Amino acid sequence: MLKRLSGQELRLKRNHARLLDHQHKPRDLDLRTWLLLGGRGSGKTFAGSVWVDKMARKLSGITIALVGPALHDVREVMVEGASGIKALAEPGDRPRWEAGRRRLVWDNQSAAYAFSAEDPDSLRGPQFHAAWADEFCAWRKPEMVLSNLRFGLRLGDEPLLAVTTTPRPIPALRRLMAEAGTVTERAATALNAQNLSPGFLAHLHDVYGGTRLAAQELEGLVVEGEGALFRIEDLKRARGARPVELERVVVAVDPPATAGGDACGIVVVGRKGRQAFVLADRTVRGLSPGGWAGAVCQAARDYGAHEVVAEGNQGGDMVRAVLRTNDCPAPVEMVHASRSKAARAEPVALLYEQGRVVHCEAFPALEEEMLALGCEGGPSPDRADALVWAVSRLMLGKALEGPSIRRL
Taking every annotated instance into account, which residue ranges of this chain make up the domain Terminase large subunit gp17-like C-terminal (predicted)? Predict the structure, then answer.
């Protein structure tokens, strides 16, 4: 006989079914921080609310932290807003807000406590099973608040932090993205268009389309900050189709500095005439040398690469060996950097400014790293560095001062 679901179970299933792909918590085994970067109206609040409500109802007696820019934001947006936690349940089944204790309580005694990012010290002492931090980039002292919050995530088997925010190019966000255990998801406003007012997106695109404000507020991208080499307007202009035939295709590799955990930048670029075409971003993370070398060789096979360009400043002999072991189908060129990543990227940024580089697909993670080149802080630009090597090899050749090339 089929089990009859309770009203609460039906509501949990209904809310879960309403989630879009970008609103589901990632399933990565080493997940410690779920970072959801989204445009305005992309459904960030709904994603956080469903996650908190589902966890609180399934695990009796747990304690959760809700952190917003101010206490007003926690209550009016995260708890009682149109996409807040209380809005997910029907009348009579909603968790109750206890204003005096600044907490939301479920019938099973699970509780979510409200904290303001304006008062970092309020997070000293309490302990939690999980935490939801909203609009991280609007906090005045993001790193201090985050540090105190994390010291309190010490209950349960696997305490998890969820961070939902519209991004801004601040060092605190770039460092958070670079941390081990952080899984970053991105969500453009357009993904949630079905739940927005008709004409909302069209109007904003008419007014702000192609600007850095649109990239940040509508697409959820971390745009360039002070000192950035690449401009958002050049990247937007770089969209285009792949030619039927290409004269030459290169797979460029920025190997990780350690045996596991760091990303291995893998970018495929082709050339036709005076233009370069970015075909794929095959970057991988957390693989052994054999694992990322296999991904490089597979990319070379998939795109019929004429050569593989690999940076050899760190572990050059190892890079050469693992590519050979994986039967690399194309000749391998080892390149050695004598200048900084930003200095090497300057001539490539000029090619983008001249309209001579085309992105044949959307590459949000790659473009985000490009927009960070030259700025303070942030993760290692593995994807962007691989792109620079590939475009330089195809478009600048020996005229580019810096890399020395040695054939294997």
Answer: 252-392
pLDDT at 248: 96
**pLDDT tens for each residue of 139-168:** 989 999 999 999 999 999 889 999 999 888
**Which bin fits 156, alpha (ψ -120 to 50), beta or left (φ > 0)?**
left
Q: Which residues pair with 303 in a beta bridge?
A: none
- Report the top-level CATH class of 236-407: alpha beta
- Answer whether 0.90 is exceeded by the pTM: no
Three-class SS of the chain:
CCCCCCHHHHHHHHHHHCCCHHHCCCCCCCCCEEEEEECCCCCHHHHHHHHHHHHHHHCCCCEEEEEECCHHHHHHHHHCCCCCCHHHCCCCCCCEEECCCCEEECCCCCEEEEEECCCHHHHCCCCECEEEEECHHHCCCHHHHHHHHHHHECCCCCCEEEEEECCCCCHHHHHHHHCCCEEEEEECHHHHHHHCCCCHHHHHHHHHCCCHHHHHHCCCCCCCCCCCCCCHHHHHHCECCCCCCCCEEEEEEECCCCCCCCEEEEEEEEEECCEEEEEEECCEECCCHHHHHHHHHHHHHHCCCCEEEEECCCCHHHHHHHHHHCCCCCCEEEEECCCCHHHHHHHHHHHHHCCCEEECCCCHHHHHHHHHCCCCCCCCCHHHHHHHHHHHHHHHHHHCCCCEEEEC
Residue 11 has pLDDT above 60, yes or no: no
Q: What are phi and psi of 143, to 5 degrees?
A: -70, -35
Q: How much is the mean pLDDT over the chain?
A: 83
Which token pair is 109? Answer: 């005694």
Q: Which of 258, 267, 260 is nearest to 295 (CA)?
A: 267
Nearest to 119 by CA among 93, 141, 101: 141
Let me know if domain 7-195 sits in CATH 3.30.565.10.
no
Contact (CB, 8 A) for 243 and 235: no
